[in-house]
Amino acid sequence: MDLHVEEHGPAGQGSEAPEAGPKALITRFLANRAPSTARVYTTDLEDLARFRGTSTEDAVRSLLQDPATTWRRLLDYAVDLRRRGLAPATVRRRLTTLRSLLATARALGWISWELELPTESEVTVAMGERAERERSSYLFPRHPGEADRLDLQHHALREALGRNFLAPIPSPLRVLDVGTGTGRWGFEVCWEHPGALVVGLDLVAGRGEAPAGYRHVRGNLLQGLPFRDDCFDFVHQRYLVSGIPLGAWPRVVAELARITRPGGWVELVEPRMPQPAGPATEHLQRMFLEMAGSLGLDTGDVVFRSIDRYLREAGLEEVTRREFELPVGEWGGRVGSFAASGVRAGFARVCETQQARDALSAVEAMTLLRRSTQEFEEYRTVWPIAIAYARKPG
Asked: Is the separation of the CB atoms in 97 and 41 below 8 Å?
């Protein structure tokens, strides 16, 4: 939802009227309150400012962007409050103070939207996911739209290949999908091979009702796989360049080889940045790479170029590498449409992270995403994908 701001609203572009700024909003919010209530509200606003590492006025300004950004910021704040050991009732009171502040802004006509606070269950889930992320290096934050992004990536590749994997294994009986995401790949393998047991490993469970032959196992690949040696016919892993630190790749692939039975197959699928890229797309890619670099992830195309080498170094044989270029954009038909939606969703997650850090405005993000989508058509962008598979010696 776009943020509607009156002519002199708090998110005005460089010409904010003093009477409509965060300081004036705080004054109006505290006016006519009982002294004890005003002190509590002031303390709550000051605590938000400490959390954000800024002034109270700037902390209030950060809540006046758009409802989606504000909701995420309040969820992050609620998680911080809980991790500090505050009681759920105290957390709820502080969030309610901020909702009341936003209600005042709406009554004054400075914003046009209402905000639903994160629920207690949403805060609890976010705490667990925060703890998991701190033990991992996954680039993309958990988000309601993340599942759609992962499914779009799956559909684009599935449509382009006409199949779910390239390894020459006609009837796998025990299959592992590492970093399974929503589980869509594993579900389809179950449907294609009704006699197979397909295990999807990820930090969180996927979505939807799983087929009878599918099992989810919670785990962090970077901490080792919770399976014995030589137990899967086929081990599949894809799109984890955004989750595995560059230096950990040889160790990770060796772990995949360990749990594959003699004669079984391992398949890796990894992309590089879409190309050619216009100015807006290049800007979004730079933001992506800056975030990736901060997590120790690959910021070039090392993984894309090396997945077959990793398989060889893990002691696997019959290594085969193939490369594909998925069209990105409506110019590429059904595959291009899926790929464009997936790439755009990934860029949107990056923009949301930058917005949460106050490094990008909502208007700037929307402009970059819109222009990038146009550039997909103008430049006839493609998304290079490398697939490598290999057999474990018998």
From this structure: yes
Phi, psi of 216 (to 5 degrees): -100, 135
* 282/288 Cα distance (integer angstroms): 10
Structural element, H or E, at residue 263: strand 260-271
- The arrangement of secondary structure in 146-391, i.e. its CATH architecture, is 3-Layer(aba) Sandwich (3.40)
In 3-state terms, what secondary structure has residue 179?
coil
d(CA 51, CA 45): 10
Of 176, 270, 261, the closest CA to residue 225 belongs to 176
Find, among 294, 271, 283, the residue nearest to 351 by Cα: 283
pLDDT tens for each residue of 219-269:
889 889 999 999 999 999 999 998 899 999 999 999 999 999 999 999 999
pTM greater than 0.85: no
Q: Parallel, antiparallel, or unpaired: how do β-strands 382-391 and 260-271 relate?
A: antiparallel
The two three-digit tokens of residue 342, written as one number: 């997936």
**Alpha-carbon distances of 131 from 72, 154, 225, 272, rounded to whole Å:** 17, 27, 19, 29
